[in-house]
Every structure is written in C-alpha cells, then in structure tokens.
C-alpha cells in the first residue's frame, strides 16, 4: 500500500540498539530489569545510555546521583526539541541533564514534570508520537552508544506511544498470575495501532520476562504455561523467582553484577543470557 510515511531504516551495525522495558501494569519489575540489563551490557564493555521515561523516576533514583529539586530532566529536553513549544523552552542543554557514571553507563533522568508531558504537547501540530524519536535523532544518540535502555511507566498514554515509536525492541516483564494477560494485551494493542498508523517502524517483541514467579504456588507453572500459550510466538525468557538479592542490591543502588558472592551468580547469568538473546534479535 502507498504510504506518505516511510518506515525507519534499520539501525546500521555501529548504531545503538534501543530497547524498552514495558508493561501497563505496575510493580512487575520493569525498572529492576532495565537497571540490571543496562549493567549486564556495560559489563560486556558496551557503552550504555539509560533513559528514564517514567515520571515516578524510580530508574533515576537507582543511580547514585545527587538529587536537587531544580535538576532538569528528560521532560525539559523533549519540550525543548519541539519548535512549536518555543514559549515553554528552558535553557536546558543535553550536557546539563545527562549523568555520567563510572560504569560505562550514562543516564538521562526523569522528573515529576514528565507527568505533564501529555497535556503540554496536546495542542501541537507536529506528530506528538514522535517527540522522543526525534530527540534521539537530533542529538545523534545512536552513534554515541552501543545500547539505549528505556524504562517505561505503568500507563498506556502518550509517553508509552513515544517510547514504542522510538524503540527497536520491547521486553515485557510480567508477573505470571491471572491478571497479567490483559496488561500485556493492552500494550500490544498500542503496538498494533502504531503499526497501522505507519508513521514509524514497529518495535520488535524481544520477549516476555516472567518475574516474581512463585515456585511454592501449585498453580504457578500451570498459569505460566497458559500465558505462554496465549501470548504466541515470542521468546519467553527464563523466569525470575522472588529474590532477596534484588532488594539487597537495589537498596545499595547496585546491580547484581557488583556482588562477587555465589548468591548472585545465577541472576548474573540470567541477565547475561538476556543480553545475548536481545542482541541476536536486533542484529
Ligand atoms: N524477582 C524479584 N524478587 C524480589 N523483588 C523484586 C523482584 N522483581 C522486582 N522486585 C521488587 O519489586 C518492586 C517493584 O519492582 P520494579 O520497580 O522494578 O517494578 P516496575 O514494573 O518498574 O514498577 P512501576 O510500574 O511502578 O514502575 C521493587 O521494590 C523491586 O525491587
Ligand atoms: Mg518502574
């Protein structure tokens, strides 16, 4: 079919792959997975950029950075990149916002201003869905990193649409219970809507990550098997059980890769195999 909008060309070999962690449901492990996956890539020598697209800013708070109320964040950068919103522009430069850690990982933090994003861009004529994508292009972020990891909010609004339009692939952490299916289906409907709009290429499904899998519950395996059947073709990554190691590491703002003890080896292995699976899909 003829279309005015051409799909994006696939990123070239030396351009960053963009991966988002998404689920409309809250508390399923999006931020935990995003943080540890970023560190898994960094440990393999990859240069990683993390973008926090959740107004709750949990991802940002996992990085050991000084907080201040007037710190500018992704919201200011996104608004500044929309010409029509000139009246709202602030003197915020990428270099003021981006935080460099000493682990091969940079972060563009979020802030509560981002909760007003949808309303702020409501009246513009430029495509509202493509603001994050254009921002990434304008600052040539793909050519500065090997991997860009985006942490998504537990919603379905314009922020989510912006993430889905900007990303090459999506990982879906979920808690395998009888409520999980609907949240996953809702977000996939948004992906299908984006595909139908033909304004950009559709992100790949990089697989589902069963999290907080309760091995003591008799029904757990049956529920997971049922979900696996209804979700269709995409990869089902190895399940994460309830692990005190996550609480312990995140409380110290560390990834599982920071710890040498044997308790962490299995989690490290799981994240490394996730990086391998994702890289294979996106290459
Ligand atoms: N496998 C796990 N074992 C133990 N604790 C976990 C596990 N996965 C996540 N958690 C904990 O559960 C809480 C919620 O996880 P997380 O913040 O990653 O979810 P989220 O999907 O990002 O939530 P939100 O939608 O609110 O952003 C966190 O305190 C996290 O440390
Ligand atoms: Mg989160």
Automatic annotation (TrEMBL):
Residues 17-196 form the AAA domain. Pfam families: AAA_31. InterPro entries: AAA_dom, DNA_Partitioning_ATPase, P-loop_NTPase. It comes from the Bacteria. PANTHER family: COBYRINIC ACID AC-DIAMIDE SYNTHASE (PTHR13696:SF99), P-LOOP CONTAINING NUCLEOSIDE TRIPHOSPHATE HYDROLASE (PTHR13696). This is AAA family ATPase. It comes from Peredibacter starrii. The lineage of its organism: Bacteria, Pseudomonadati, Bdellovibrionota, Bacteriovoracia, Bacteriovoracales.
């Amino acid at each position: 079919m003829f279309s005015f909008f051409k799909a994006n060309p696939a990123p070239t070999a030396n351009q960053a792959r963009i991966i988002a962690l998404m689920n409309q449901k809250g508390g399923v492990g999006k931020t935990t997975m995003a943080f540890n996956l970023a560190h898994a890539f960094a440990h393999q020598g990859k240069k990683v950029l993390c973008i926090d697209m959740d107004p709750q800013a949990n991802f940002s708070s996992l990085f050991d950075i000084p907080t201040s109320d007037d710190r500018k964040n992704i919201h200011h950068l996104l608004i500044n990149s929309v010409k029509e919103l000139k009246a709202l522009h602030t003197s915020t430069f990428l270099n003021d916002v981006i935080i460099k850690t000493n682990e091969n990982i940079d972060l563009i933090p979020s802030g509560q201003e981002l909760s007003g994003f949808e309303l702020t861009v409501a009246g513009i004529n430029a495509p509202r869905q493509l603001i994050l994508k254009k921002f990434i292009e304008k600052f040539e972020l793909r050519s500065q990193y090997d991997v860009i990891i985006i942490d998504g909010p537990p919603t379905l609004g314009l922020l989510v649409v912006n993430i889905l339009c900007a990303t090459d692939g999506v990982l879906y952490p979920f808690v395998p219970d009888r409520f999980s299916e609907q949240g996953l289906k809702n977000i996939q409907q948004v992906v299908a809507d984006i595909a139908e709009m033909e304004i950009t290429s559709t992100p790949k499904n990089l697989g589902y990550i069963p999290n907080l899998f309760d091995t003591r519950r008799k029904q757990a395996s049956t529920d997971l098997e049922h979900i696996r059947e209804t979700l269709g073709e995409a990869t089902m990554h190895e399940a994460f059980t309830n692990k005190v190691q996550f609480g312990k590491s995140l409380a110290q703002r560390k990834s599982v890769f920071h710890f040498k003890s044997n308790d962490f080896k299995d989690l490290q292995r799981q994240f490394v195999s996730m990086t391998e699976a994702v890289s294979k899909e996106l290459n």
